């Protein structure tokens, strides 16, 4: 029977950086990473549209959601440059503060981790699943073997993007040891909306301020790209709001086009065109994409003044999302009330839970990976201090 000082279940961003930190700090301990994928770090290699957005200079508590949001921000401690100490490459930030490897290749980050882990003697067991875990820690593997460990780190990911092996089945491991699971829903995901007023807009991308509300109560707001689709809305602004819409019924999103322009300025522009004899359907020509302008005018009705009001107040009822297969991350997860500041379980000594596996999710822009890295490092340091 194989025995290790630390067994890490999950070879994603949190699990691999946990293993790396352990191996760098303590050459005298044995570490194994167990993952169901043929290639470890598969999701990391696809992040940021393949470019590797790993962090963000603009960090605030509002970037995190879920029951462990405050603890996540505390764990990160403002260390937005953490990835630069983990990977063997140079990084740079773009104009929006998003931090990328200078080569803009996410797969190179996975290669960096795997190269150093192999050089440091970390055992990589894959493709293998952990089908059961017992206190003490005996882990049953999908090939029938049993592995023992003094410490276990559950870094199994969530339910989003099952093509990366994260289908939610691994939550059963934490539950078998007494941990509770908070409700799961897709986050950083496209929204399904009523499409009656946007059927002609498929594929059009605009900048917009977006708010989400239910029963007149504001749930959240964001400004950025909005992309019209045949099912509803996509784009960064929509992704940012999707977490506050998790599990909410009866919600409405309101698009305010031309976010830097006041409604009165739009009204004057429309009136000037009308005075010049523009056809009604073209009163937003040059101000907005022509197809969008025509859709707004059609919805606004006969009064010219209603056009400007509709430009700044274009409402769409939300009917759902595209689901976990399209979501970037999972909202919900293992209840953080039973996890300490060192990422160790309060119920089972020697058990650590990190990354997307727990009830923390971040905004789009590198925040989720930063949390994964920080929680993996925090668990590794805690284990090293106790061994």
How would you describe what is shown here?
With 387 residues, the protein is of the alpha+beta class. It has 2 domains: 238 residues, FAD/NAD(P)-binding domain (3-Layer(bba) Sandwich), CATH 3.50.50; 131 residues, no CATH class. 27% of the residues lie in helices and 27% in strands. It has 10 helices and 20 strands. Strands 1, 2, 7, 8, 9, 10 and 19 form a 7-stranded mixed β-sheet that branches. A 6-stranded antiparallel beta barrel has the order 12-15-14-13-16-17. A hairpin with a 4-residue loop joins strand 5 and strand 6. Helix 1 runs parallel beside helix 4, helix 2 packs across helix 10 and helix 8 packs across helix 9. The longest helix has 20 residues. The mean pLDDT is 95.
Largest sheet: 7 strands, mixed
According to CATH, the homologous superfamily of the largest domain is FAD/NAD(P)-binding domain
Give the class-level CATH name of the largest domain.
Alpha Beta
DSSP strand content = 25-35%
Mean pLDDT: 95
Q: Please give the radius of gyration in angstroms.
A: 24 Å
Q: How does the SSE layout of this entry go?
A:
Elements: E1 2-9, H1 13-25, E2 31-34, E3 55-56, E4 64-65, H2 69-76, H3 82-86, E5 91-93, E6 98-101, H4 106-119, E7 123-125, E8 130-134, E9 138-141, E10 146-154, H5 171-176, E11 181-187, E12 191-193, E13 205-214, E14 217-228, E15 232-234, H6 236-242, E16 251-257, H7 263-275, H8 290-300, H9 305-311, E17 314-321, E18 329-334, E19 351-353, E20 361-362, H10 367-386
Parallel strand pairs: 1-2, 1-10, 2-7, 10-19
Antiparallel strand pairs: 3-6, 4-20, 5-6, 8-9, 9-10, 11-18, 12-15, 12-17, 13-14, 13-16, 14-15, 16-17
Helix pairs in contact: 1-4, 1-10, 2-10, 7-9, 8-9
